[in-house]
Amino acid sequence: MCVGLALGVAGQLDGRLDLRGAVAGLGEVTGGASGRESSPQDASSLPKVDEQAARLGAVHDLLAARARALKTRSKSAWMATVDLPGTSFRGRQSIEFDNLSKLPIGQFSFGAVRQAGALSGARLRQLGPQAWVANVTGTYSLTGFDRAPQTFDTVYTVVRRLGGWRLADDTDGLNPFEMWDLPGMRVLHGRYGIVIGNAPESRMRDYQTIADAAVRRVNGIWGTGWNSHVVILTPSTNDEFTRLLSRASAKGLDQVAAITQGVIESGRRAQGDRVVINPKAFTALQRIGRRVVIAHELTHVAVRSSTTGPVPIWLTEGMADYVGYSGLDLSRERVASELLTLVRARKGPTALPADRDFDPSRTKIATSYSGAWLAVSRLVDLYGQARVVAFYRAVATAPPADESARGADAVAASAFPHSFGVTEAQFVDGWRKYLTTLAHTGR
Questions:
Q1: Does residue 29 carry a pLDDT above 60?
Q2: Across 32-163, where does the E strand assignment appear?
Q3: Residue 88: its pLDDT value, please?
Q4: What share of the chain is helix, strand, coil (3-state, %, to 5)?
Q5: What is the CA radius of gyration of the chain?
Q6: Pseudo-torsion of CA 125, 128, 129, 131, nearest 10°?
Q7: What are the backbone angles phi and psi of residue 305, rounded to the nearest 5°?
Q8: Which of its termini does the chain have fewer beta carbons within 10 Å around, N or C?
Q9: What is the pLDDT of residues 271-286, one digit of tens each?
Q10: Which residue from 304, 144, 328 is spatially nearest to 222, judged by alpha carbons?
Q11: Under a CB-based contact definition with an 8 Å cutoff, are residues 155 and 133 in contact?
C-alpha cells in the first residue's frame, strides 16, 4: 500500500478465489442420446431416468459441436446451436464467439452436464414444456500463458425444436462472468504478457508497458524461474470488475486497485493466474502508484507459479510491496505515513499483520500493507535481500505434512532461527522498535 500513491492490493484474496463452483461429473450421462423422441410432460413432473440421460447426452453433443465450431473458427456452426434469431441471447452469443476468437485459445471444451432447478410454469409456457436448465462445466486454456486448462461454469436454458435441442437463454440461473463476456473486448500482446479487456485502448497499452517493466523488476528480485507470461484483465466498469471476481457485493473493493485471482491446489504451483484491474481505483492513481500495483501483483503471480505452499500473509504482501516499491525514490516515512501516525499516537501494531487485517470488507487495509512492507524491508536491512528471498522460498516449499500440521505461520516461525539466527518473536520486538524510531525520526 502506498498512501497517496497506490491503493491496497488484496493479495490474500488472491489465492482464495476459487471460481470453479460445484459441478457434476459426466458420469451422470450414462445412456447417451437415445434418438427417441421425448413425450410432452407436465411442468411439475420429472423425466424418467432414461429420458433424462438422453437429454443430458444430447446437450453434451450440442456443446461439443460448439467447441468444434470455435476450434475451426466457424461462427455459422456456433450460431447453429443457438435458438431463434432476434433474441438478446442470440446477440450475446454472437459477441461471445467474436471475443473467444480474439483470444489465443488452446483448449476449449464442454464437459460435465447436469440438470439445474426447475423452470417456472410461466417460463415453460413461454419456451415449451420440454425446456429445462443445464449446468455445464468446461475447460479452456490460453496458449503460452496457462500451464494447465482452466475451469469455467455456465448455465444454459435448452429447448426442443424440430431440428433437435438448441440453447435458448443464459439467464435462468447464476451464470459466472468470464473475460469473453466483456462487451467490446480487445486483446493486446506485449513482450511478457497479454492485456484483455474493454478499457480504452490507450489505457490498455499503458498497462502493457507497465507490466513489461514490472516483469523485469520481479525477475531482478525473485528470479526468472516462473511463468513470466502474464494475463491482465482490464474491465471498464466497477460492476464488471466485481463480476469477474464472482463477488455478490463490491463492499470494500474501493480499497483495492488490482487483484490476482486463480485456483491454487494444495501442493501444486498456480497454473493460470489472472491480474484483474479495478478501473476506478487504478485510474485514480498517479503513474508511479500504478507501477507499484502492477509490480506487486506480478510478484504474487511469480511466487504462486513457482512455489507450492502458503506463507503468512504479512510475508506474501510484504514481499509484493517490497518488489513494488523497489527502485523508486520514495521514503518509507512518506509511503507508510498513515501507519506511522498511529505509531506516534501509541496505536501501532503489536504483532505482524494477520489475515483479518487484509479483509477490505471488514476493515481499512492501508496500514496492514504498510506494516507488512516495513517488516520485509527491515528483514532486508538486517540480513540482505538474498537471504529474505531464500527464507520466503523455504517457507513456501515446506513439506505439505508440516504445512498442514502446523500452519503457514508456524512454519515461518520455525524457519526464522535457521534463516536469520533470531526467533520470530525477537524480530517482531525489533520491528516494533524500528517503527517507533521511524515514526519519530524518519529513519
A1: no
A2: 105-115, 132-142, 150-161
A3: 94
A4: 50, 15, 35
A5: 25
A6: -120
A7: -90, 0
A8: C
A9: 999 999 999 999 999 9
A10: 304
A11: yes
Q: Judging by beta carbons within 10 Å of its beta carbon (0-12, 13-18, 19+), is residue 78 exposed, middle or buried?
A: buried
Distance in angstroms (rounded) separating the CA atoms of residues 210 and 221: 17
Which cell goes with 210? Answer: 507497465
Alpha-carbon distance of 340 to 314, in angstroms, equals 17
DSSP three-state, residue 132: strand
Identify whether the C-beta of residue 278 lies closer than 8 Å to the C-beta of residue 258: yes
Structural domains in the chain, sorted by start: 11-16+183-441 (1.10.390.10), 26-175 (3.10.450.50)
- Cell numbers for 337: 505515513
| Residues paired with residue 143 on neighbouring β-strands, in sequence order | none
Residues 266, 400 contacting (CB under 8 angstroms) = yes
Average pLDDT of the chain is 88
Helices within 223-312 (DSSP H only): 238-244, 279-283, 287-304
Which of 15-19, 123-127, 272-276, 332-336 has the least mean pLDDT?
15-19
pLDDT of residue 398: 86
User: What pLDDT does residue 1 have?
Assistant: 38
Q: In this structure, what are the phi and psi dihedrals at residue 33, rounded to the nearest 5 degrees?
A: -80, 120
Residue 91 has phi, psi (to 5 degrees) of -65, -40
